[in-house]
Amino acid sequence: MAHTTKTFSDDLTGWRYLTQPRRSRPALRENKSVKFVVVGAGFTGLSAARELAAMCPDDEVLLLDARTLSAGASGRNAGFAVGVSQFGGPVTEERVAECKRINRLNHEGLALLRAAASPESNSDWWQESGYHYLAADTPSARESEHFINSLRNFRLPYRALNRSDIERELGTSHYDCGVHVPLGALVQPADLLYRLVDRLPENVRFFENTPVEQIQQGALGIDLMLSTGHTVQTQQLVLACNYEMPGLGFLRNRIVATTLSGSFTRPLTDEEMASMGTCPSWGVLGLHGGGATVRLSKDRRLMLRNCVSYNGGQLLTPKQLQQQVPKHRERMLKRFPQLESVPIEHSWSGCEGVSRNMTSFFGQYAPNVFAAAGYNGSGLSRGTALGTALARLMLGGDDQLIKDASGFAEAKWLPPRPLLDLGAAWSLRQRFAGVGEDI
User: Fold this and answer.
1) CB 361 within 8 A of CB 411
2) Quick one: which of 42, 52, 144, 161 has the most CB atoms within 10 Å?
3) Is pLDDT at 5 greater than 50 in this prediction?
4) Sequence-distant (≥ 6) Cβ neighbours of residue 338 within 8 angstroms
């Protein structure tokens, strides 16, 4: 089917920089024949492997990742497990069914993630206190009104915020208005991934640093050729490698990766924290699609992620990343000028899988090959829901989760490079058009 020789990055940046050192699992260095293989140990792959193992306790489930755990996109995101999405513009009558379907996936994904991780109360790596959508200019303030109207119509809990509310709770006068949504969790993605792996069923065998180089239809199912020189034969295959699926021959000209970057400060002192409002930790999403993501973490670090580019599906080089750091700091201080003396301690980049029309992918893509991908920045809860639904679909299920996961529109075609580079650059300009003070 496909062959790839891509080199997979595996560094200590992102949220894993803030975790305790972890001993990685060994690479797979033997030939195997199993009923199920899952490629990709992010939130989608972990949920698919967990569900397959639970439903088929007598079968071995092989879970393979090209990197070490949390080195990929699942360990580099902003850590929002959303329970409610903001859809942009008014939710007109013809949009209601689709928006409700997406939110059902959000709700179910959040519930599945919570059940799998079993966070303790007051956990450092899981805070289920919701998150904020905030507006810093007039266009985004209109989006806030649209969002509040949809939340009210859907009978979902929310709390509208004015400038004084935001300044009191978050310590910034940058935003004009917004809304707090309680249905969601702020997580430390790396710690959450480690927790999920440690709690996998015993019939899941997980191997790191094991890239799949080639996939072929074999006489008895699917044959996977590994970078280690060994072969895995499987009856059914799950691909949970998101924007890297084209390298394995699937979703070509349908999914592409944009590269984002962000920075953490050092931990804030008691005096600095006293200027940051009454909420000890929080997360902010912009109401404009190109708005910055901001968090105050449980360990008192301020994080801002606001630079998006097309980089051919690659992380930024150290030189490219350093060029972004002044932009992170500028926008941090725009929101929190009281932190002028607080240095940035760590910066990182990560990729997200997006489609031209912002749809997701779910279903069977070849005989015995199933896949889910393309979360457009909402992979924690949606990826968990779709991975679980994929396992149930493989085993002949037909429940509401599968129906909701199967409802995505077909992705529009993307041109090959170099036209793809031009199209991606144009799409990014469109995404940031009118972003204003939300950047």
Assistant:
1) yes
2) 52
3) no
4) 171, 272, 275
Tens-digit pLDDT profile for residues 386-416: 999 999 999 999 999 999 999 999 988 888 7
> Which domains, from first to last, does the chain contain?
2-75+191-252+356-408 (3.50.50.60), 131-182+257-354+431-438 (3.30.9.10)
Question: In whole angstroms, what is the distance from residue 366 CA to residue 360 CA?
Answer: 17
Q: How many CB atoms lie within 10 A of CB 341?
A: 7
Which tokens in the block code for residue 381?
């809860």
Cα separation of 413 and 355, whole Å? 9
- Of the two residues 224 and 353, the one the predictor is more confident about is 224
* Cα gap 404→397, rounded to integer Å: 13
Hey, what are 439's tokens? Answer: 């950047």
Sequence-distant (6+) residues with CB within 8 A of 121 are none
Q: Are 21 and 219 in contact (CB under 8 A)?
A: no
Write out the two tokens for 340.
């002028």
Residue 72 · residue 64 · CB < 8 Å: no
pLDDT tens for 23-43 read: 999 999 999 999 999 999 999
Structure tokens of 174? 């940058």
